[in-house]
Amino acid sequence: MATYFLADIHLAENRPEITAAFLATLAAIARDADAIYLLGDLYDYWLGDDLATPYQQHIAAALAALPCPLYYQHGNRDFLLGTAYAQTARLRILPERHTLTLGGHTVLVEHGDLLCSDDRSYQRLRRILRCRPLQWLYYRLPRALRLRIAEKLRAQSQARTRRKAARITDTNPAAIRAALQNARATILIHGHTHRPAVHRLDNGDTVYVLGDWRPHGEILRYADGACTLINSAEIIHAPDNAGA
Ligand code: MN
Questions:
Q1: Radius of gyration of the chain measured on its C-alpha atoms
Q2: How far is CA 242 from the centre of its chain?
């Protein structure tokens, strides 16, 4: 059996190749998964559970049909995904930082945007967007206005990322060390930066960075004491290795 970690699928109705790749990957990994972790930005944007579209309900049904537990963390794009949708999709929502044990190791999982501490303007915006009274107001707006706000935020975020140096929008090494230390973890798994890699730190800790999907993405598979970063396309094309 294996545990899988995925992030930054950025599902959207106008991205049918990504949707197909994601659903095919789920079907393939369900053969031997004992748990699947979705570490944020499952959706490219989320207007609110009350405005979930037939497309999003279709995804929820596919997720709910999986035989293993499904854990989910909010990303910076889908942080408004709420308990109503989570219930339909049988997603168990985890806090923004969560630890689990894999083969005796304490593993910290998070979306990754909190680790980009050099991006001060983003961190400021993040604090504002996550404030409850503001969200309460947002939910009272009509759909068209919510869509405009979401599109504006997305466009601004893309423009800012283009303008900023790559160093600014990447994770900060000190923030990573602090997060691992606070969690008493030796392994960190995150997404968000779209820079899939395995980093061995000086102190022996390991950081796995998951990839974004275009239409497939780098996901992490843990089995038999080993973590492997693998492109999801390789998994769906691999022969059935579930061992029945
Ligand atoms: Mn993200």
A1: 18
A2: 25
Q: How far is the centre of ligand 1, averaged over its atoms, from the C-alpha of 174 (Å)? A: 20
pTM score, whole prediction:
0.95
Per mean pLDDT, which range of 55-59, 75-79, 118-122, 158-162 is the poorest? 158-162
* DSSP for residue 50: G
With residue 154 as reference, give the H or E element that holds it: helix 143-163
| Nearest Cα to Cα of residue 3 among 38, 52, 46, 49 | 38
Packing angle between helix 120-129 and helix 143-163, nearest 10 degrees?
160
Using CA atoms, how far apart are residues 206 and 187, in angstroms rounded to an integer? 5
Q: What is the 184 CA–ligand 1 centroid distance (Å)?
A: 24
Calculate how far, in angstroms, residue 10's C-alpha sits from the geometric centre of ligand 1: 9
167 sits in which H/E element: helix 166-169
